[in-house]
């Protein structure tokens, strides 16, 4: 990785991303925090069902499901983001994402709403605010008294550790 890439990934300067971050977001809950992902990446939302486990996967890769004939890997974001004790209940859902033709499911504590975010709602992420690696965060959004952490779900799902998942399901 070049110095420029490192600066872009870890420097916390997401000003260019902030202007392009305005739009509609699906908001969901993980632990005590509200998160948002671009609605255009969401294919569907389903209740959490049992998954088929695959040997030698990192703990956050729960396994795979068969979704209308397609094998879809399932990632538990609560484990990925190290949010403590993970419980599956009636509110636990799987958000099925379509990331440039690649279908992936993410497990979250619950889905909240679809929110329209404008530029005035968006803020940069102060360093050391979150447990998540900030290279996966586009920014923060504040609407009234709510704070949303906006996740670059595509960057997160195409990170190196996710390549293990690809190898297992293909």
Automatic annotation (TrEMBL):
InterPro entries: CheW, CheW-like_dom_sf, CheW-lke_dom. It comes from Methylophilus flavus. Pfam families: CheW. Keywords: Cytoplasm. This is Chemotaxis protein CheW. It is found in: Cytoplasm. SUPFAM superfamilies: CheW-like (SSF50341). Residues 22-162 form the CheW-like domain. PANTHER family: CHEMOTAXIS PROTEIN CHEW, CHEMOTAXIS SENSOR HISTIDINE KINASE-RELATED.
């Amino acid at each position: 990785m070049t110095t420029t890439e490192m600066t872009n990934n870890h420097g916390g300067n997401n000003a260019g991303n902030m202007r392009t971050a305005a739009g509609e977001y699906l908001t969901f809950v993980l632990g005590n925090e509200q998160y948002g992902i671009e609605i255009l990446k969401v294919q569907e939302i389903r209740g959490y069902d049992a998954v088929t486990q695959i040997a030698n996967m990192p703990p956050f890769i729960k396994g795979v499901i068969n979704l209308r004939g397609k094998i879809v890997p399932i990632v538990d974001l609560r484990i990925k983001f190290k949010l403590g004790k993970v419980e599956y209940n009636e509110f636990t859902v799987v958000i099925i994402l379509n990331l440039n033709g690649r279908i992936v499911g993410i497990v979250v504590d619950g889905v909240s709403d679809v929110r329209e975010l404008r530029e005035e709602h968006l803020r940069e992420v102060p360093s050391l605010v979150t447990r998540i690696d900030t290279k996966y965060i586009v920014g923060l959004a504040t609407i009234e008294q709510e704070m949303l952490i906006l996740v670059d779900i595509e960057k997160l799902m195409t990170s190196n550790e996710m390549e293990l998942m690809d190898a297992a399901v293909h």
